[in-house]
Batch of 2 targets.
Target 1
Amino acid sequence: MENEKSDEKNFFTRVYEVTSLIPQGRVTTYGAIARYLGSGNSARMVGWALNSSFSHSGFVPAHRVLNRNGMLTGKHHFGTPSAMSQLLENEGVKVENDRVVNFKNRFWDPASEL
DNA sequence: ACAGTGACCTACT
DNA sequence: GAGTAGGCCACTG
């Protein structure tokens, strides 16, 4: 039932929803979200959407979204390069060299979970 | 309306 | 195994 504010449901909002659904201590990838949204290979748009997440009202756990290698690619966009890794460690995710440890084990696939 | 950009991914060489 | 190139869709100027 899409009866809630279907007026401004942009691609961005869709990403916010999925990203916001990421369980704490878990991480996902841009490609996974892109595929779940049906964008296919447009993983770039996902990252870009998260970029606007800072403008979005409310907090979006964009730090839980990494690239295919589990690397914190957009850490520089958090304002401080340490904010992303710090947030992840704060949630129980160990980060080393801008990379998530046991990333494969912590990988949360929306298309598989949802 | 056109062109450029963007936190990527996949495939080929 | 590693590196390079192209593709993709959506937003901004």
Target 2
Amino acid sequence: MTSHAQTGVDLTKNQTLVMGALSSADGPLSAYTILDQLRDDGFRAPLQVYRALDKLVEFGLVHRLESLNAFVACRHTECGDRGQTIFLICETCGKAIEVTDKAIARRLKTVATGALFALQTATVELRGTCDACRAA
Amino acid sequence: MTSHAQTGVDLTKNQTLVMGALSSADGPLSAYTILDQLRDDGFRAPLQVYRALDKLVEFGLVHRLESLNAFVACRHTECGDRGQTIFLICETCGKAIEVTDKAIARRLKTVATGALFALQTATVELRGTCDACRAA
DNA sequence: TTTATTGCGTAACGGTATAACGTGTGCAAT
DNA sequence: ATTGCACACGTTATACCGTTACGCAATAAA
Ligand SMILES: [Zn+2]
Ligand SMILES: [Zn+2]
Ligand SMILES: [Zn+2]
Ligand SMILES: [Zn+2]
């Protein structure tokens, strides 16, 4: 169903529908936008979306963009390592590019340790303008 | 009034009240928490808080924590350089430690450039456990 | 005085997220 | 068979976050 089929998780009907909406979108979607898109499929309440999203995030199939209050399908094949994902969010077109960088992950760990802080997860979200929008 | 008095900005009455609430708090506050604290000072509506917060963020006296939907007084003396601030947010006590790191700022810039992305601002918020809470 | 700017206050609204309740189904262990 | 449990689901209600729209008052040019 997705590029993450390897994970071998079995998705429920609702999870499949939400995953489909995110996969076919070309950018991050809010929970309520997903709800609207799935009304014809029987979705009626926000909680149906949030429950599916919680699981999809847990499975690593979906990322939550904190600074956007939105969700995006993972496009990265090797994002298994937690907390290493960086998002480049274009202010113009709204799309989010997903990248990883070991040097940043390492340095964040070092900074946290230096502050006697037990790092669990990292949110790194950059704002700016993507190449396509700058050219236009 | 704050450690940023050097900036020499004149705060309005509402801005002063909101700044005071954030300065005397020992952690991030949501806009609605600030509103509740300032009801006795005449605050009645969220917009009064948000208008003040917008200006305080613009002046660099306050930071917004995207992953928390909350605001915190800047405790860092040299955070003038935009986008270099990193927050370490303790999941246990809710406090936020503010640090800067030139290596990360530089590397983020490099990563963005490599993706042909024109970087404007960076949000870096780490979750984990602070030293005090881990010891307890 | 006229005009523009800025801050302020009120009300109404829309977007985000969770709480609390009950239902049904599949799958052990008894 | 039945009991207990885990899990997904559906519904309603509510709390929390943030903005839009409108009008008023004080201040600062012009
Ligand atoms: Zn990913
Ligand atoms: Zn773009
Ligand atoms: Zn600061
Ligand atoms: Zn702590």
